[in-house]
Design brief:
By secondary structure, this protein is an all-alpha fold. It has 20 helices and two strands. It has one domain. The chain is globular and about 85 Å long.
């Protein structure tokens, strides 16, 4: 039996899902207790509504959810592990699993009175982090079941592009009013704002690539005729929207945000051209123009030189984030396997600063080190496996798929994943709910691009 996912009755859930994509960056990146709670409740209600409809036979899972079982299994293992960090266990077992955690729990209790304690050193922070993680995984699963046809996939990509453009216009407007102030949009931190723009740009570039003609140009004359047709179509409007986001990205003056964008675009473009069996001159020109024109023209008028100067002026003496990462590594050494508890960094970390530097830091400015310290090798491995499997799925889609929409979506997933992984080496973007949720959407796009069925691929 063939299921029409377009008319499976979940349209209103899908509509609220799209609104969530646009909403999540608006209240300071949802990085406040109340806005994070709104995000979690929103996803919980959508998930419960979908499950209620599914049990009544009104909604359907579809093949993508079934085929993406490896990453779902890994995500469930991650959730089980995070919630396990909250489970009190006999102090003898805790002493064997995490001696340092047992020592601190014993130090906080009356002598001889502690019978059981959890792995985490901050129960409330880990409970909050566990609720966030559950919401992210639920959103990822919703993406797989709701984005079952090309129209829904395309609309979801445009929802994220729209959100990026709104952020770009808002941030650029206030930055241009005060030239000395970098653009930050509705985010508190310009680096997190830049990371969000890069993810939105990745999806926009993927949509542009999907719009290119799949036929090879056998002559330069045909190529230029196709190029002119492309310029006078609405696709050029999308290109201008991407330029707007690039302007805002440059105005953020985020060193790693801009670097991650151009590095990920170049690397993903090369991968796309190598893996594509039908690479066209149009695709080559598009990728080259995105790099050259945006840097040379946009940067000339909107401050790429200032970003370059900031990168050149960066030294180990002028930055203390490397020191914080070093202290965090010392923290990780004390909790190597199971971590100190997801979200416990602000409580545990100050003990590892000899000169007081750590007192002003609530994050490690390095997602890898922070997740390692809080979740240990076990948690970091589960998260890394989820990301690597998703990137591999996007790579496979780039090589196997013939459907231009799926190729564009896989390009967007690869570029966005790579960009955030680069940026996360010097910042804590995955600790910001808006960026974490958008990253989960990119992971979902990777699996959707690989397993979404289309007649064009079956006939190839």
């Amino acid at each position: 039996m063939t299921v029409d996912y377009q008319s499976d009755g979940s349209r209103w859930i899908y509509a609220l899902y799209l609104i969530l994509i646009v909403w999540v960056p608006i209240p300071l990146g949802s990085n406040r207790a109340w806005s994070a709670a709104v995000l979690e409740v929103w996803i919980l209600l959508l998930s419960m509504a979908w499950l209620a409809g599914f049990t009544r036979g009104r909604y359907f899972c579809g093949p993508i959810l079934r085929d993406a079982w490896p990453v779902l299994l890994c995500a469930l293992a991650w959730l089980g592990y995070v919630w396990l960090q909250l489970l009190p266990m006999p102090i003898e077992i805790l002493s064997w699993l995490s001696p340092e955690a047992a020592r601190w729990h014993n130090a906080a209790a009356l002598p001889g009175m502690l019978a059981a304690a959890p792995l985490t050193l901050d129960r409330y922070a880990t409970l909050d982090a566990a609720c966030k993680s559950t919401a992210y995984v639920a959103f990822f699963t919703l993406s797989l079941v709701l984005l079952q046809n090309r129209d829904r996939i395309r609309i979801a990509t445009y929802a994220l592009i729209l959100s990026g453009v709104v952020q770009a216009l808002y941030g650029a407007f206030f930055s241009l009013q005060s030239p000395w102030a970098p653009a930050s949009g509705t985010f508190v931190n310009r680096n997190h704002y830049a990371a969000y723009l890069v993810m939105s740009l990745s999806v926009g570039i993927g949509v542009l690539i999907a719009s290119l003609s799949g036929a090879k140009n056998h002559s330069w004359g045909q190529f230029f005729r196709n190029l002119i047709r492309w310029i006078i179509t609405p696709k050029m409007g999308l290109r201008l929207l991407l330029v707007t986001m690039v302007i805002a990205l440059v105005l953020s003056r985020s060193r790693m945000g801009n670097s991650a964008f151009f590095i990920s675009l170049f690397v993903t473009g090369v991968i796309g051209l190598v893996l594509s069996r039908r690479a066209t001159k149009s695709m080559v020109v598009l990728i080259v123009s995105l790099i050259a024109i945006d840097v040379a023209i946009v940067g000339t008028y909107f401050g790429t030189q200032q970003v370059v100067e900031r990168i050149g002026e960066t030294t180990l003496q002028s930055e203390d984030r490397d020191e914080v990462a070093g202290y965090a590594l010392n923290m990780w050494k004390d909790y190597p396997v199971f971590g100190s508890g997801l979200g416990s960094f602000p409580v545990v970390f100050p003990r590892y600063s000899a000169d007081g530097t750590a007192a002003s830091y609530t994050h490690a400015h390095n997602d890898y080190v922070e997740f390692g310290a809080e979740a240990g090798l076990v948690g970091l491995s589960l998260l890394g496996l989820m990301v690597l499997m998703s990137f591999a799925a996007a790579l496979r889609a780039q090589y196997l798929r013939r459907d231009p929409v799926m190729r564009g979506v896989s390009f967007a997933a690869m570029m966005g994943i790579l960009a955030l992984m680069i940026h996360s080496s010097v910042d804590f973007n995955l600790q910001i709910p808006a960026n974490a949720l958008t990253f989960m959407l990119l992971l979902a796009f990777a699996w959707i691009s690989l397993f979404h069925a289309h007649a064009q691929d079956r006939a190839a």
